[in-house]
Write a structure and sequence with these properties.
Largest sheet: 5 strands, mixed, barrel
Shape: globular
Strand order of the largest sheet: 1-2-3-5-4
Number of domains: 2
Radius of gyration: 23 Å
Number of helices: 11
Order of helices and strands: EEEEEHHHHHHHHHHH
């Protein structure tokens, strides 16, 4: 398949790293062509398991066999490629949200640009832009809901769509607070997990959590913008503090403004309904799902009228 002296370039995910006493060590990777190959890495260089890299390699003869020696390797985040190519790679190599990320980016940024209150818009835009890259990569949870690549953005986007319906019915709600609160409510989950590819909680995530980190970030950005004493910032902080509603789920305060209560409801609706839909997809019409953890381990019937 490969020839000595020829160069080969490809994206690949690291599957296994082996030790070696030679100048290079073997690494098993899965390429974008769905081939499992072994590349050889210089001992002074290192790769990480489950990470996606762009490799420049050369075919060499090693123990009478053709191996691929790595000339250069870059993490995906270090490579300049189109959004479409990046999304294609992520969907191939990882469990990815069932969405068009490019469209979600357009929708969320259009929402931010449509905010009318200067304080709310400026603070929200600053936090969003500072964390944009990770925001579109990280999951919303490790296992309970939206637990896949881009799950955080998918969850946020779904909540924004639901919020539009709430605003049509309850037009006395403040749209800026509702939209900004949704965009900011989970954004610090990017610091709660150790990576976006099959995440585990960091020590900071376990001991502090995304709610407290979000309030701290909001305070820091507000001070940098000289908005720290505004009511708008206080209201956004309250939304972040209260969106889980219950103390044993991480919220030190219950909602005491209408928009905070609505965000709690919308968050609850999307997190549970998304999981329910995914579980129903796994069974045939006429069958029951398995017990669903986020729905008190109830089993749901997929009736004959189901889509």
């Amino acid at each position: 398949m490969f020839e000595a002296g020829l160069n080969y370039e490809f994206f690949a995910k690291v599957l296994q790293i082996n030790e070696s006493t030679y100048a290079t060590y073997p690494v098993t990777v899965l390429t974008e062509d769905n081939e499992t190959v072994i590349v050889r890495i210089k001992q002074e260089e290192s790769l990480s398991l489950n990470k996606l890299y762009f490799f420049k390699t050369e075919g060499i003869v090693f123990k009478e066999k053709i191996h691929l020696e790595v000339i250069e390797s870059k993490k995906l985040s270090e490579v300049e490629i189109s959004d479409a190519k990046r999304e294609k790679l992520m969907k191939f190599f990882y469990n990815h949200a069932p969405v068009n990320t490019t469209q979600i980016i357009k929708d969320i940024e259009k929402t931010i640009q449509g905010l009318e209150n200067e304080v709310i818009k400026t603070v929200t835009e600053k936090i969003y832009l500072d964390n944009k890259e990770d925001f579109y990569l990280y999951p919303a949870a490790t296992k309970f809901h939206h637990a896949y690549i881009s799950g955080l953005a998918y969850h946020t986007h779904s909540m924004l769509r639901l919020a539009k319906g709430f605003l049509e019915v309850y037009d006395w709600l403040n749209a800026d607070l509702l939209y900004a609160g949704i965009i900011l409510h989970d954004i610090c989950k990017i610091f709660e997990f150790d990576s976006f590819e099959g995440s585990n909680y960091t020590i900071k995530g376990k001991l502090i959590g995304h709610i407290s980190m979000g309030v701290s970030m909001l305070d820091r950005v507000a001070r940098d913008l000289n908005f720290q004493d505004t009511e708008e910032v206080m209201l956004l902080q309250h939304i972040l503090l209260s969106h889980h509603y219950y103390g044993n789920f991480g919220s030190p305060k219950k909602p005491n403004i209408a928009e905070a209560l609505m965000i709690h409801f919308i968050d609850n609706i999307d997190s549970k309904t998304c999981v329910l839909g995914e579980e129903l997809e796994l069974v045939e019409n006429g069958d029951l799902t398995g017990p669903i953890g986020v729905l008190e381990r109830e089993r749901y019937y997929k009736h004959k009228l189901s889509k």
